[in-house]
Amino acid sequence: MQISSIQPSSASSSAVGSQFLKVSANLIEGKKPSHVESSSKETLHFQGDYIGHMEMYADAASVAKYLDAHQEWFHRCAQPMTVEPIGENGYGLTVGKFKSLNHEVEPKIGLHLLPQEQGVYRIETIQVPGYEPVGYDVDFRACMTLCEVTDSDLPAEVSIEKTTHVEWELNLSTWVEVPRFIQVLPDNLVKASGDKLLNQIVRQVSKRLTRRVQQEFHTSQGLPLPSAHQKRFWQR
Fold first, then answer.
1. Closest CA to 182 of 108, 100, 71
2. Quick check: helix, strand or coil at residue 193?
3. Distance (Å) of CA 159 to CA 12, 94, 163, 202, 215
4. Domain ranges of the chain
5. What is the pTM of this model?
6. Distance CA 188, CA 62 (A)
7. Average pLDDT of adjacent 10-residue blocks, the chain of 236 residues
8. Is the preceding peptide bond at 133 cis, omega within 30 degrees of 0?
9. Is residue 155 helix, strand or coil?
10. Helical ranges in the chain per DSSP H
11. Domain 46-226 belongs to what architecture?
């Protein structure tokens, strides 16, 4: 599903990645707490904001009914990522392996799909029970809004008057532990590596999940799949 970004609350922002020293990717210099001076590791913080949309050939009520029943489709649409349920509205995703600055991580992300509020869906990071990330942390915050419109530019086989644009935003932060010598690298190289890491995670979690949800929904409704030629997801 395409998902938009929740604005992070101060409480959860401080909790996520609290064991890490937060260092901006493009501002690596900065005084570090004395207790990490002797460490052979440096923790870098990368952050990205993304926006996108998804076309659905149905009215907003039909789309909402489908999205509300995520227990029925989330595990299928998330493949090939491994999914484990966390309570009624949460999932633990083993995302895949990513490499940045010669450092490889295989993040597992806990996502909480909050119940919709007047056509707005939010997703926030939660802990995966019994799992402690080593060398990285991820904060995934998204918000998705259903916008029903009257659309006359539809394929001939689609006999409906209203469609739904799913507009969304995503705020993604990662903290990655790397050897301390990374500090001497040029800022633009470190930032480019961080951007690549974020884009890989976004592509794996959000973009693929979005397209699969779109495919499953239209197939279940006996509707043609909207064209994928338009760019539906980008960084801002």
1. 100
2. helix
3. 45, 40, 11, 34, 18
4. 46-226
5. 0.73
6. 46
7. 32 32 33 40 84 90 95 91 93 83 78 93 95 87 93 76 90 83 78 80 80 91 76 48
8. no
9. coil
10. 10-15, 60-68, 70-77, 187-202, 208-220
11. 2-Layer Sandwich (3.30)
